[in-house]
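In this section we walk through a basic example: taking a raw amino acid sequence and producing a predicted 3D structure, encoded as discrete structure tokens. The instruction is simple. Fold the sequence below.
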Amino acid sequence: MRARRSTKIIGSVAALAMAAALTACSGDSDTIRIGVKYDQPGLGLDEGGTPVGFDVDVATYIAEHLGYTEDQIEWSEAASANRESFLQQGTVDMILATYSITDERREVVDFAGPYYVAQQDILTAADDTDIESPEDLDGKVLCSASGSRSANNIVDDMGIGAELREAGNYSECLELLSNGTVAAVTTDNTILAGFAAQNPGNYRMTNNPFGEEQYGVGLPKGSTERCEEINEAITQMWDDGSAAEFLQDAFGETDFAYEESTPELAPCA
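The resulting token sequence is shown next.
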């Protein structure tokens, strides 16, 4: 996978921490705190203390549009289960962590975007050809990460009788798939493609996508003005070709056919 733009983590100096606390979500702050995944190849992966991937590139682009340099970004690991609490408690100013926009989440946080629209898919062991669609998961053990609704989409919304196994993150799901504890892992096709590419020959994507996952920029409740600024950045990112460049960097060496059309932005509440 080709190298991506690097980012640097600002040291935790007391004066800067105090300034950030006093001016959270404000362009007057010396830094901007952004939550991303640290365990998702192609999207947000920790490489030697610096996260890289599509979400990281998008976050960096947005931060620069808001007036911050790469050196002014403070990265934090935002797991699926702690995204809402990070925003509600002021731990970060925004989150780009394969964070799907849903009505339920909109009750407690705001979203800008979407900056990308993914679909859900299924990952199995490479030699498992019995599972080709959600219906084939009936009676089988299915893994998804805590805080994600991917497995619920299959069991609750589609009414398929799979047994759910929740893990702390998708790396743990892959371990459970490798040792045979679960039969399959389900989540966004972007996430699964990254793991499959990182472990060639070990896993198989069904490549039978379903549903829709709109990746949004998570913001604290009441961030209408900031949301509008970020939507401007997202529009510019697709118009100037940067989004296509980021996707090529992340997935160009895989067989994943990523979405190349500009997503329709939702209005800021």
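Looking at the output, two observations stand out. The longest strand covers residues 109-125. Confidence is low (pLDDT under 50) at residues 1-27. In the next section we compare this with other chains.
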